[in-house]
Every structure is written in structure tokens, then in C-alpha cells.
Amino acid sequence: MDIYQQVTDRIISIIERGTIPWRKNWSAGSGMPRNLVSKKEYRGINIFLLSAMPYSSPYWLTYKQALDLGGNVRKGEKSSMVIFWKMLDKHNQDQDDDNRATGKIPLLKHYNLFSAEQCDGITVPPDPEETVNPFSPIEKCEQIIAGYKNRPDIHYGGSKAFYRVSEDRVQMPHEHTFNTSSDFYHVLFHELSHSTGSKSRLARKEVIERNEFGSEDYSSEEICADLSASMLSAVAGISNETVELSASYINGWLSVLRQDKKAIVIAAARAQASADHILGKTFAVEESE
């Protein structure tokens, strides 16, 4: 049985034993979205709405605020919506009701924001204070990354890890914000695995079409990327430290897929193609009887 199949079987076995609480394995500042001008943090559902966007900076502002600061929103950038409740006098909304009650009624409103990363010509404060953990480069992991031919650019900073297909760019928190060195490489392998789905590489529709968060295609791609990361971690010799994290992460996406654990079989085939693409001929994957 080859090493890829061993990793897949281990993960399936862990999933079948029950859900493991997933944890984020880095801590880079508070990461709470806030307004660049007022410095106030957004609250309630707005935290989720903004945190779900693929930007590493926690700072947001309106189009007018960007202009007032002497900057501008880059052409073609799309805004993100936030909501708020505006309290109105009830009698002003119901003038024909002779039996109206006094008081206020809430009216749901919304407005649009842009990430500081979508703007030019504005000054952004330094990132919030980051956790600093010891970090030791792992040679085999570094070799895998270096051996990925025509790989995307890798940028460091902020509190999020993601791959942005439109720029062919991987964004990673700094190495020292991760709990362990193995955690850092596993997350980087995950994002690099997403990058193999770009049109210029393996052309997975789940990457090219930018599916909505929570959709089956989105979930399938997340499973594929983390299986691929687990396979790469196994090749690098760090799978013992990362495989249970992968199992719990993947199990969350399998729940979105109506707990259909068979979906992992299809994802595993795509993950193997992804890992092979990153490895190229740098490593010969060992097989066992």
C-alpha cells in the first residue's frame, strides 16, 4: 500500500471514531475586523461577514473614507456588506394608525466596506501584536516547497491563510505565530494544494469557479486540499503531528456534504494528483507491501 493510501485510510479511521473539535493552529493578533478611521471593532454578524472575506488585514473603510484619506479603491474591487439597526420613531412610520403605540422600531440597514488591501494610497497601522513561538525550519518541508515548479508567490503577514486564484498568491501568517513548526508547514501545504487547482496547473473547477462558502464544490475542494497537505506532510515525515488535525478539519467539511464519507474517496484521488504536482520529481514516494 502506498503512503498516500495509508494517510487517507488513517484519516478515514479517525473520522469514523467521531468528530474531533477542530482548532486553528496559529495566533496572529486579534484579527478582529475594525474600521480604519474610527478604530472601532465591528460587532455581531458583521464579524463573520468580514472575517469570511479573503483579506489578511483587519482594517476596513467605506469608499468615502478612502477618498477622505487621500487614497482610492482600486478599479474593479468588490465591496463587502455590513448591517446595522437604525431606530426610528414608530409614530412616524404609521401615521394612519390612530391606535399606534409610542416608542421606537428597529429598521435593518446596510452599507458597503472595502478592505484596506483593496485600496491604494492609504496608510495602514501595523498588525496587532502577534504571538511569538519558537520556529525551526524543517529541511524536507523546505525542499518540497522549493521543488514546486512555477509555484505561486507566498506572502507573509496578517491573521489568515488563503490562496487567491485571481492573483495566484498564497497568504500566510508569519511562521512564529503557529503553535509548532509542523503546523506551519501543514497549513502552507494546504494553501499550496489549493493553488494546484488553478487554470494554469490542474484546472479544478472547484478552484477556478470560486464556489460559495459552504457549497458542495467548496467543501470538496477543502477536503482535497487538506488530504493533499496530509500526503505532503507524510512525505516530509511530519504526518504524526498533523494527521489528527486534518481528520477533524475534513470531518467538518464532510458534515456539510451530508456526512457522506464516500466523498473522501473522490477527494483523495484529486489530492494525490495535487500532491504529485507539487512534488514533481523531487521525491520518490515510498511504497510498502
Main sheet specs: 4 strands, mixed
Q: Strand share of the residues?
A: 5-15%
* Helix proportion: 40-55%
Strand order of the largest sheet: 1-2-5-4
How many β-strand runs?
Answer: 9
Number of helices: 10
Mean pLDDT equals 79
As an assembly, this protein is: single chain
Tell me the series of helices and strands, N- to C-terminal. Answer: HEHEHEEHEEHEEEHHHHH
The class by helix and strand makeup works out as alpha/beta
The geometry reads as globular
- Overall radius of gyration: 23 Å
Low-confidence stretches: 19-23, 284-289
Report how far the terminal alpha carbons are from each other. 6 Å
Instruction: Work out the count of structural domains.
Output: 2
Index terms:
about 290 residues, alpha/beta, three-stranded mixed β-sheet, 10 helices, disordered C terminus
In short:
By secondary structure, the protein is α/β, with parallel strands linked by helices.
